[in-house]
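step: validate -> pass
step: tokenize input -> pass
step: predict -> running
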Amino acid sequence: MGILLKKEGLHMNYFCTLFDSNYLIRGLTMYKSIIDAGENFQIYVVCFDDVAFEILQRLSLRNITLISLHEFENEDLLKVKKTRTKGEYCWTCTSFVIGYVLDTYKLSEVTYLDADLYFFNKPSILLDEFRDSDKSVMITEHRYTPEYDQSATSGIYCVQFMTFKADQYGIRVLQWWQERCLEWCYARIEDGKFGDQKYLDDWTERFACVHVLQHPGGGVAPWNVQQYNVDLERNIGDNNIVFYHFHNLKMLSTNKFDMGTYRLREKDVEYIYYPYIDALKKTLHLVQEEYNVGFTSGIQEERAHWKNPIRKFKRKWRGIYNVVQR
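step: predict -> pass
step: emit ->
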């Protein structure tokens, strides 16, 4: 495999991700956050529909390599595709995206990113820790706040930010994961499995080459942010938030957002969520301006239902009505 390139004395960092047109605005916003952080990087994007591919191709953005679904899919994936939902198929493909990018572009290392991440600082802060570990794979814990602990069902670790080296140890872990995901990858709990994620639970015992990220700023999310005292500069204790995982945030319109059903404090909303929402709106405007003024993919409009006022009341009563207009 290739050797990590250096530019101006710094590592060139390689990332990969996958998304379709419904996640395009989030994926582009995540990409822009890495640019704004000043990272030295290249990102490989597997576009899961033609619309996403066409828009990204038209935008001609720097530091992005586009991969069509047709280029990416292989016989093994096509065989199981019809047995999986759209979401389950994306989960099935995650490990294969990592392998495809490592092999096709002859990289020595690549980091997978979920499309709904947002970087407030350089991801290389986390990658430096990984390289110092001398391991071949890095995974991140959910680090659940106790009231939200879903380790038994959703797993100890989160498939959100994972690094694999293309050495014999990293490839061994990756191929094991690929085989498991081909065998079974569904959005249900069954025999200790759930999607592609529960497979990671025993990696630190199964494989000697796996490093668990220690930096608390990598993987801050709605299920763990309650543990941290977040300030205006997005510091949590002595550390900066490197990335936040905006799980379950919904765009209800161009100016209305549901931030999910976890308990969020005013400072979490103001210091973390508002900057992200503003960035999403800018990205949407860019795509509408450059591609199609009517583009609204990814916006989940609220449907009228007689239970809506009851649901709203229950969420407000529980302190989890996190719907804002901005």
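step: describe -> The longest strand covers residues 157-165.
step: cleanup -> pass
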